[in-house]
Amino acid sequence: xxxxxxxxxxxxxxMVADTRTNAGLDNVATFRKLHVFExxxxxxxxxxxxxxxxxxxxVLSTLNEGxxxxxxxxxxxxxxxxxxxxxxxxGRAIRHLHEIEGRVxxxxxxxxxxxxxxxxxxxxxPMRLFMIYSAGNFIECTVDTPxxxxxxxxYGKPVLDRAIxxxxxxxxxxxxxxxxVDSTMRSNLSVGMPLDILIVHRDGYEAELxxxxxxxxxxxxxxxxxxxxxLRAAHNNIPRPPYATKT
Length: 247
Hints:
- The chain is 34% helix and 30% strand.
- It is α+β, with helices and mostly antiparallel strands.
- Helix 3 packs antiparallel against helix 4 (170-187) and helix 4 crosses helix 5.
- The longest helix has 25 residues, at 83-107.
């Protein structure tokens, strides 16, 4: 499994993805799940993936190679005119793969399981963030709910629900997303480090921060310890429930 999170706020976009993949307890490996497509000054797009690794890699390869058009050109993410049409191309790549592999996978009792987060901005258009499902359809992030998650999302969702708003500072959004990932890793062994992170300012058209957090990285270790201490302090400061039977 995996955990990926995208947060779209007033000032820009934050994306975080773990790198752990596993096919059983004795077959754990590291693969990059956050991929960036950019032409500096024109566009920047990022796609993170969850689900069957062979399927997600095939979709990404299709997007890199592109679809041939009737006039001999190739449609890729880097020449899509809008973010919406770029998201449609990802959906098309998923459906194309399902046509090729779906029956074979079904015959082998393997589910067609994959999902993507896709965010970024093309010059002349707004910054957008989408979640794309295994059928190729997608939903879009909104001001009311300025984040999307894929993979093992349930453990990291409560902190996002409580802390993320559209007006939050971009680097505060990164901090909260890392707390969300830490909460997930503590509860699910199928999510693990290293972590890939990306920050893009609105109308910037290039990555402001593209970084990999390795195990033992000082800031992330400190964040984990501080968050655990803060939770313990909050617990100690809340009065005990007054429900005990008096004797």
